[in-house]
Queue: 3 jobs
Job 1
Amino acid sequence: METRGRLAFVAALVAILVGAAGLAVLWWSVSQPGAPVSDQVQLSAVRTGLPWPIALAFSPDGRVFFAERFTGRIQVLGNTTILDSTFFTIPEVASSGEQGLLGLAVDPNFPNSPYVYAYYTRDDAANGTVYNRLVRIRGSGSVGSGMDIMRDRIAASAIHNSGVVEFGPDGKLYTLVGDAANSAFAQDLSGPNGKVLRINSDGAVPSDNPFVGRPGADADVYTFGHRNMFGIAWNPSTHAGYVSENGPQDSDEINLLVPGGNYGWPNVRGIARTPPYLDPIIAYTPVIVPTNAAFYTATVPAASRGHLIVGSFNDHRLHELALTADGAGVIRETFLATAPDGILDVEMGLDGMLWLTTSSGVYRLVPAPASPTPVAGFGMMGLLALAPTVVGGDPWSRLLPSRDSERTPPRKP
């Protein structure tokens, strides 16, 4: 009996050592740089506690700019050792309703062409007026040295200002302008409201704009018949452009841009099948409040590459749209991720990852760690012991947090 007891003790000790060795191997494998990842993604916080970081812009020199909607500050994102820095502060920013500093873009040749572009609502208190502006800020080293007005006195309202600005693959600057709560503006070609505008980086009108030379038409206009747009993206393969548009209580839209196209507001909305108005590729009823968008070019998940990703303010989701071969329809819609709050901006970063903002934070979508495979004889206790050791190895997740700020309750833009 004594011999059997000793053998049983030795066998138990060996089992414990084998289990411990398995645990050590698994812990080591998942905690090393370059640990295996799954074909799934997860949100990783870059910075939280920010005051409405409504727009991101990526500079070719590696800097990440973001716009603070109500303060008027254009900030350069810091890292683990360098805090955020102010590039420029736009004065007299209006803050009623959907107003504010609304759009941000960096010249594709920055800093050789040292310009940062912004769209904002100006509170011209001296004259008792409020209107929207497109401006170009001149960079000098790490700060902006002055501001040039490119388009001025665009009609503004407490709602429907839009304001997203982005450079397209053709090198032109596209500006999304809402109808300023006056739906008649959208069908009136003489002004910019309810339109997608297209201009050169120096402010000149491109000679191939669809309404150049047409009497009474604003030569900046690229498309018209829009209500209130919050996003624009281009297919990297075909260069086709798409905008997200907010409807009233129904018919949020994603529209494929056709030069000179009329998208129907206020005469029709949603999928109306009423030529000459152009229908959206998808419409949402009930509404989701679509915001900015990007075509997904990250490697994980592989099945999402080439799909159009649209943020939503209402449901906090990244809506993933697989498009038809001609880009004029949607094959299926899934959800790539869910943010902790309503999504504002969505961009592909120069690091190859998708970035987004909410009313208080900046996030990246990063590969999720692979689930460890249990070792035979490892047991549930070993799994519980292992779980806390899984790390993502994501340097952006270690950024220093800045101060907290109050959140504005989500509502329909």
Job 2
Amino acid sequence: MSPLTGDACEAAPGTGTSLPREKLVRGIRYFSILTVISLTILFYATSTRETLTAFGHLDLGFLLLAALLQILDIFLGAWRNHVLVRKFTPGVSLHLCFRAQLANEFGAAVTPGQSGGGPAWLYVLHRGGIPIAYAMAVSIVVFLTTISFFLISTSVALYYLSSAFNSHALFYLLQIGFLMCTGMMVLIFLSLAMPGLVSAWLQGIASQESKSPLRWRRSLSRCCAAAEKALQQYHHTCRHFFRKDLRYLIFAFVITSAYYLVKLNLAYVILLGLGLEVDYINALALLAILRFILYFTPTPGGSGIGELSIATLMASIVPGYLLPVYTVLYRAYHLFLPAIFGAWVLLKELHPRHERTTVINT
């Protein structure tokens, strides 16, 4: 879940916020097209007669276990949000957080860089009676704990795999990409710890670029101004947690770690469902890097790039003819099914006769 900015959602009568519906519809279109194209390329390049027969030899026991892990995964995401939201709004319903988590899955799946997950999550919470300011505060903490987990897990995975892939060109690209993302993450933490320094830097950029006649430079100036405004709000929220409620932050990180570890183990169980015997640690290291790549992929739901990344990374432990099968199952469990249920939740929320309800226990 990405942190929300002031323009992440549009104001709407009756709710105080609404979803960027055109963005969601456009995202669904691009997501579908890119997914079909990438899967078609993958099947064409790697499938054999054994590929189709592999679908009939799947171990249903492991697939059922994967489904249970998927339910646990969504529950952990909802529980984490519930713990944090309850700090601001005691008595909030876990059911509301569960619905919001599903909405987040759908919004993230159909928007570039998962940018729609936050607004969808915020929308459901607000419809349930949670003030926007509180929901945004929680989204910031969730984003920070997620970044922290990725920094740790990807660092460990790259270190573990360095000997096996030391001469692999893809591994060098992964290291470069990780260093670039690490730099961006450090900048985010620095902006929250030292907002005055970053704010002055943004003001300097805005003052210089706003004088330029070029349209893109004026847009950059407006983005810097918006980032500076959001920065002050994020800093206030994080200072509240760091100074007064550090235990909530630590607990949120623990749940976030469990949340993503379940995702990694779910992907490993799918390998077992294909009848493969794969080293557990080696597989989890590859899957941790894959999860990192998918999280920062700019296309809606990682479509196109995601499918090809799965096949490329997992080719070292999955036979070529099974790569399309594994890719389809991976995306089905991690993306397609949660997004479908999330879309159902949002459709209920967007129904014109759906009245806003308050789920705060009295």
Job 3
Amino acid sequence: MFLKINKDHQRFRQIVKGKIRDDLRKFLTRGELIGKEGKHLISIPVRGIDLPHFRYGDNNDGGVGAGDAQVGDPVDSGDGDAGPGGTQPGSHIMEVEVTLDELADILGEELKLPRIKPKGQHTITAEKDRYSGIRTSGPESLRHFKRTFRAALRRQLIAGTYDPKNPIIVPVRSDRRYRSWKTVLKPQSNAVILYMMDVSGSMGDEQKELVRLEAFWIDAWLRRNYEGIESRYIVHDVRAAEVNRQTFFTIREDGGTKISSAFKLAKSVIDTHYNPAEWNVYMFHFSDGDNSSESDSRECCRLLKETMLPQINLFGYCQVASAYGSGNFINVIHEHLDSEENVITSRVNTKDDIYDSLKAFFTAGR
């Protein structure tokens, strides 16, 4: 009975995940998720699913109650003005609880994680399936013949049908045993993710919210797949500063913009702490594309091309639309770095664009 209940529960969870996957674009835009991590439960509204329940008998008969009312009488027969009734069928909405890790898994099934080229010491871990147990159900390709034979022999011994002089063992359906597996962590390469965000005056609250949402899901996905990955956070206007994760997602600033300040600080962090021969380095920069000057934008491209791109796995630039920014930095990147394979750019004008931006960054093989 327990195995059947567990199987039904797993099937129900798969249905729930399928519904979440259908509405994945919408869930990516939920700003209240920022700050949650790993095993925290998140309440998700899911349409079109009813909780499993028992049904008894024929519901055509009237219910049990008190008073003079007859079957079919309206519940409210007072003189109040309730207005006309609706004519459209209602939609079923159920609140289900999932963890951020589960949402990240669903995201990963859609977007894929870029392959990391192994470098240096093995301190980062990735998930790998390992066969570790026995179940009474499963695909025939995983049937454990020895365990199946032992189960059939035990059954015949208990039933008294085993004949030592004619030792024929015939397994039945209930005797079949199948190998099961669990997910284990396999050592992989060192990896560090550097997040850089423009917090200047041209970046309004709407633009910063778009950046935080995208950076949050990048961070959630990478943390889910790599145990112990290191993340560094840089914010900048005309000056750059390294901050912690919480500050990165909540800071409010203004002022001018000098993008090269963030790139120079990122280079200093890499040179000081992360030997490119030992580390896989990923950089993501978020901005509205406004910069103090064209010469500073060209300086950023020079820094990237000459000193950073040869050492890092990926540089991802995400530009958000702003009414106050020039939006020209992405054009400068395309002009000077268009031939660089480890440079990826995306535009995010609204929350609906976050899904496609994440997919661009995490295309398999990048």
